[in-house]
Amino acid sequence: MKLLMIDDDQELTELLCDLLTLEGFEFEACHDSQLAMQQVLQKNIDLVLLDVMMPGKNGFDILREMRAARLEIPVLMLTAKGDEFDRVLGLELGADDYLPKPFSDRELLARIKAILRRTHQVKMPDEHGDDQISHDDLVIYPRRQEVLHHGSPVELTSTEFLLLEQFLRHPGEILDKAKLNEQVLGKKLMPFDRSLDMHVSNLRKKIPDRDDDQPRIKTVRGKGYLWLQW
């Protein structure tokens, strides 16, 4: 797996290069935010580690450009410790997860591996050879992470797709928030962690409204989420 770290802290990137190379990753660093998109487009990147605070373009600017260009490469945002605004904004813009600085080597590796597991997993057809899940006006193809609404494609990040897949596999069922957090984000739900909520919010915005103008996803207070049936 190839990782690209976009961060102007050269000392940090050198340390992480040694760590991640030893873990079997191919690692590259970009210290100039103005060249970040060029690096993302030219390299076959599996995951971007993206710092928020950089001179010139900041991490949010780069993330906006990536998602505007329909680049669905997973992104792990590196934010200032305790800055909830940065974390929420990053998730709203389409980041897959965030990690506050300073962080431990162990936590960084765990987050990277969790994101790669869920975004690069190979899905096989079911026993009937049917490689699609249909629900009313939506059809998804898990193996190629494609979503169609009335035959038209819907652009989702890998995390949003996995979330939608869980909903469509269990329509009409209340999905426990803690369990859903582990299935989709690959980590335990911690107090005050709004990551899953933000991904659900982004999914609500991207999936077109139902023909009867009713909501698709209902929040069940104290329990989790419910994909409403017709």
Describe this structure in words.
- The protein has 230 residues and is α/β, with parallel strands linked by helices.
- It contains eight helices and twelve strands.
- Strands 2-1-3-4-5 form a five-stranded parallel β-sheet, sandwiched between helices.
- Strand 8 and strand 9 form a beta hairpin.
- Helix 4 packs parallel to helix 8 and helix 6 packs across helix 7.
- The radius of gyration is 18 Å and the shape is globular.
- The protein starts with a strand and ends with a strand.
Question: How widely separated are the two ends?
Answer: 41 Å
Q: Count of DSSP E strands?
A: 12
Percent of residues in helical segments? Answer: 25-40%
Strand order of the largest sheet: 2-1-3-4-5
Order of helices and strands: EHEHEHEHEHEEEEHEHHEE
Structural class: alpha/beta
Which residues sit in consecutive blocks of at least 5 with pLDDT less than 50?
122-129
Beta strand %: 15-25%
Largest sheet: 5 strands, parallel
Mean pLDDT: 88
Give the topology, please.
Elements: E1 2-6, H1 10-22, E2 26-30, H2 36-42, E3 47-51, H3 59-68, E4 75-80, H4 84-92, E5 97-101, H5 105-119, E6 133-135, E7 138-141, E8 146-149, E9 152-153, H6 158-169, E10 174-176, H7 177-185, H8 195-206, E11 217-220, E12 224-227
Parallel strand pairs: 1-2, 1-3, 3-4, 4-5
Antiparallel strand pairs: 6-7, 7-8, 8-9, 10-12, 11-12
